[in-house]
C-alpha cells in the first residue's frame, strides 16, 4: 500500500462529492480547521457536526454517534495531523467493528491552519498502512476522484468500518464554520432525530 | 492482594453492597449504558462486572480523551455513557473538557479512581492527583469526592441526573476510603 500513485486532490472538491452522495440523512463529523470549513462550505446539513477544538477526536466522536445510532451511516472527516494525535482510536474502532462508521483522512502532510508546518509523519508514514496494522482491514488510498467515489459507494454498503485516505493539496478551506458550540450541537441533535426544536 | 475491597457485613449479599455493585446499579437505573474506560487496578471489579452485564457496552480505549469523544458523540446520538479512568488519566483531559464537553454543553459523566492520596507510594501519582481539583475548579466543573459507602448511591444517582438535566459534565472521584485504594506491592 503506497501513496506514490495517488492523485493529489482538492479537499473542497472531494468533500462536495461526498456530500452529494448522502441521501439518507447520514451523519458527518468534521475535524477541526479546514476539514470542517470545507464541510460547511459544501452545504450545511443538520446532520453535520463541526468541531471547534479537541483536535484528533473526529473519529471517536463519530464512533460514539455510530454506536448510539447503529442504523445510520456515520462519516468522519479528519486531517492527517489530527489523526496522528489519536492513532490509538483506530485500534479501538477496529476492535469494536461498527459497520456503519466510515472514516475519511485528508492527507496533505502539513498542519495547514497553523502555518503549513510539515507533520512529523510527512513523507515517511503511510496512514493507510497504519490503519491496516491497527486492524482496520477495509482501508484504502483513493487513487483519484472517481476512485474516491467508488470507495464511498462500497463503504456505504460494507458490513465493517471503512477508512478512505486521500492525498490533498494545500488549498485553504473554502468557508468558515460559525463558532457557536451550543447551536452546532443542538442543530446536530435535531438532525439526528434526538431532539425536537422548541 | 492489591485491592483492599470493603467487605460487606456478614449476612448481606456481597454483590448488592460493594461500591462497584452500587455504581453498576446506579448506571443501569439511569440508562447509562456505554462505558469506555482506561484501566485502573482499583476499578477492576467494576470493569469486570460491567463486561459481564449485557446491558452495558463496555470497552477499553487507548486514551481517556478518546473515551470522552466517544461518549460525547453517543450522547448527541441519543445514548448515555460514562467514562472510567484514574487520576493520571484525568490529567490528560484539560483540552477536551475545555473545548468539547463544557462549551458544547455535554453531560459528560466521569468516574475517577483516586490515586495519589492516603498511602500513595508513587511520587508522580501524588503530584498528578494534586492537579485534578484545580483543573475541575478552573472550569467550574461539578465534582464530588466519594469516601463513604452509605453516601455513594445518593451522590452518584443525583450527580448523573444533574449532569443530564443541566447538560454539564460531572466528575465523581472514588476515594480510597470508599474503594480501599491501591496498596503498595510493586
TrEMBL record, chain A:
Domain Thiamine pyrophosphate enzyme TPP-binding stretches: 38-164
The protein's GO terms of the molecular function aspect are:
carboxy-lyase activity; magnesium ion binding; thiamine pyrophosphate binding
Gene3D superfamilies according to UniProt: 3.40.50.970
Q: What InterPro entries would the database entry show?
A: Sulfopyruvate_deCO2ase_bsu (IPR022494), THDP-binding (IPR029061), TPP-bd_CS (IPR000399), TPP_dependent_decarboxylase (IPR051818), TPP_enzyme_TPP-bd (IPR011766)
Provide one Gene Ontology biological process annotation.
Answer: small molecule metabolic process
SUPFAM superfamilies noted in UniProt? Thiamin diphosphate-binding fold (THDP-binding)
Enumerate the UniProt keywords alphabetically. Decarboxylase, Lyase, Membrane, Thiamine pyrophosphate, Transmembrane, Transmembrane helix
Query: Where does the sequence pass through the membrane?
Result: 49-68
Question: Cross-referenced PANTHER family, in alphabetical order?
Answer: SULFOPYRUVATE DECARBOXYLASE, SULFOPYRUVATE DECARBOXYLASE SUBUNIT ALPHA
NCBIfam families xref list: PRK06163.1 (NF004813)
Quote the protein name from its UniProt record: Thiamine pyrophosphate enzyme TPP-binding domain-containing protein
Query: Organism, per UniProt?
Result: Bradyrhizobium guangdongense
What high-level taxonomic lineage is stated for the organism?
A: Bacteria, Pseudomonadati, Pseudomonadota, Alphaproteobacteria, Hyphomicrobiales
TrEMBL record, chain B:
> Which SUPFAM superfamilies does the protein's record reference?
Thiamin diphosphate-binding fold (THDP-binding) (SSF52518)
What CDD domains does the entry give? TPP_PYR_POX_like
Q: Does the keyword Secreted apply?
A: no
Q: Which UniProt keywords apply?
A: Decarboxylase, Lyase
Presence of keyword Lyase: yes
Q: Mind listing the GO molecular function terms for this protein?
A: carboxy-lyase activity; thiamine pyrophosphate binding
Q: Secretion signal: which residues? A: none
Q: Which InterPro entries match?
A: THDP-binding (IPR029061), TPP_dependent_decarboxylase (IPR051818)
- Could you tell me the superkingdom of the organism this chain comes from? Bacteria
What name has this protein been given in UniProt?
Decarboxylase
Question: From which organism does this entry originate?
Answer: Bradyrhizobium guangdongense
Taxonomy, top ranks, is: Bacteria, Pseudomonadati, Pseudomonadota, Alphaproteobacteria, Hyphomicrobiales
Amino acid at each position: 500500500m503506497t501513496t506514490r500513485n495517488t492523485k493529489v486532490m482538492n479537499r473542497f472538491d472531494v468533500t462536495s462529492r461526498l456530500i452529494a452522495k448522502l441521501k439518507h440523512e447520514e451523519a458527518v463529523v468534521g475535524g477541526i480547521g479546514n476539514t470542517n470549513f470545507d464541510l460547511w462550505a459544501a452545504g450545511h446539513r443538520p446532520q453535520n457536526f463541526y468541531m471547534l477544538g479537541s483536535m484528533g477526536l473526529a473519529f471517536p466522536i463519530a464512533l460514539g454517534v455510530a454506536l448510539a445510532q447503529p442504523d445510520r451511516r456515520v462519516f468522519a472527516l479528519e486531517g492527517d495531523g489530527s489523526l496522528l494525535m489519536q492513532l490509538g482510536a483506530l485500534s479501538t474502532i477496529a476492535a469494536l467493528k461498527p459497520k456503519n462508521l466510515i472514516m475519511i483522512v485528508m492527507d496533505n502532510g502539513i498542519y495547514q491552519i497553523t502555518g503549513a508546518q510539515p507533520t512529523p509523519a510527512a513523507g515517511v508514514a503511510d496512514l493507510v498502512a497504519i490503519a491496516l496494522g491497527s486492524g482496520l482491514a477495509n482501508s484504502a488510498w483513493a487513487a483519484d476522484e472517481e476512485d474516491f467515489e467508488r470507495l464511498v459507494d462500497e463503504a456505504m454498503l460494507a458490513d465493517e468500518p471503512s477508512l478512505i485516505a486521500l492525498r490533498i493539496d494545500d488549498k485553504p478551506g473554502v468557508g468558515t464554520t460559525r463558532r457557536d458550540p451550543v447551536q452546532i450541537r443542538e442543530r446536530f441533535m435535531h438532525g439526528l432525530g434526538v431532539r425536537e426544536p422548541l | 492482594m492489591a485491592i483492599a475491597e470493603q467487605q460487606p457485613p456478614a449476612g448481606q449479599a456481597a454483590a448488592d453492597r460493594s461500591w462497584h455493585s452500587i455504581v453498576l446499579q446506579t448506571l443501569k437505573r439511569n440508562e447509562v449504558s456505554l462505558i469506555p474506560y482506561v484501566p485502573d487496578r482499583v476499578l477492576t471489579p467494576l470493569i469486570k462486572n460491567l463486561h459481564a452485564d449485557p446491558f452495558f457496552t463496555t470497552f477499553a480505549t487507548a486514551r481517556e480523551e478518546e473515551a470522552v469523544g466517544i461518549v460525547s458523540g453517543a450522547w448527541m446520538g441519543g445514548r448515555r455513557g460514562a467514562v472510567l479512568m484514574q487520576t493520571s488519566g484525568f490529567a490528560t483531559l484539560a483540552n477536551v473538557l475545555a473545548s468539547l464537553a463544557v462549551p458544547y454543553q455535554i453531560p459528560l459523566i466521569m468516574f475517577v479512581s483516586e490515586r495519589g492520596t492516603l498511602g500513595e507510594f508513587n511520587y508522580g501519582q501524588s503530584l498528578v492527583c494534586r492537579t485534578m481539583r484545580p483543573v475541575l475548579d478552573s472550569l467550574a466543573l461539578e465534582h464530588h469526592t466519594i469516601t463513604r459507602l452509605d453516601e455513594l448511591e445518593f451522590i452518584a444517582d443525583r450527580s448523573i441526573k444533574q449532569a443530564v438535566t443541566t447538560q454539564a459534565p460531572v466528575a465523581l472521584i472514588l476515594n480510597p476510603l470508599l474503594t480501599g485504594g491501591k496498596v503498595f506491592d510493586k
